[in-house]
Amino acid sequence: MWARSYRSDRCARDARRRETGTMPEDSFEAEVTAFILVKTTREWLDLTVEQRVEALTTEVMPAIRRRTSGVRSRFFDTEFYSARVTDVWVWEARDHQAYQLLIDALRETPFWDRYFEVVEILVGVENGYARNYGVEAVTTIQT
C-alpha cells in the first residue's frame, strides 16, 4: 500500500541521510504528537521580549534537555485569531515515555501555569487509522 511504501521510502532515505551525515542525530519518526494549547499570563506579557527569550533559554529549555530526549517541537502564535488560546506548542515524541518525561519537565518550570496557562492538551498519532487498518493514509495530502 502507499502508506507502507511511503514509510519504507522515508526510512531508507533517513538511513542514507544518517550515513552521509546530512541528517541530525535527533531525527526520528514520531510515535506520538501533542498539541499543547496555551494562553499567555499577565506575568509573561509584562516581560520584555529579551526577558522572555532569556526565561525560555535558561528556565524552560534546560529542564527539557535534562529530563528527556527523543522530542522535538514547533511553536505557533495564534493570538491573532483566537481569544481563548494564544499559542500552540506542537511536540513530537519518539515514544510515549519521551512524551511523558517532557510533560514532567514542563510542569516543573515556570512555563506551566506561571508564564502560560495550559488550556488543553490534544495528543494523537499521525494517521493512526491507516496504520491500524493497513490502508492508505488518504487524509494526508500535499498539493
Helix percentage: 40-55%
SSE order in H/E notation? HEHHEEHEH
Work out the strand percent: 15-25%
Unreliable stretches, pLDDT < 50, 5 or more residues?
1-11
Helices, strands, pairings?
Layout: H1 2-20, E1 32-40, H2 42-46, H3 49-67, E2 71-77, E3 87-93, H4 96-107, E4 116-124, H5 128-133
Antiparallel strand pairs: 1-3, 1-4, 2-3
Helix pairs in contact: 3-4
Word description of this protein:
The chain has 143 residues and is α+β, with helices and mostly antiparallel strands. The chain has helices at 2-20, 42-46, 49-67, 96-107, 128-133, and strands at residues 32-40, 71-77, 87-93, 116-124. A four-stranded antiparallel β-sheet has the order 2-3-1-4. Helix 3 (49-67) crosses helix 4 (96-107).
Keywords:
143 residues; alpha+beta; 4 strands
In short:
The chain has 143 residues and is an alpha+beta fold. It has helices at 2-20, 42-46, 49-67, 96-107, 128-133, and strands at residues 32-40, 71-77, 87-93, 116-124.
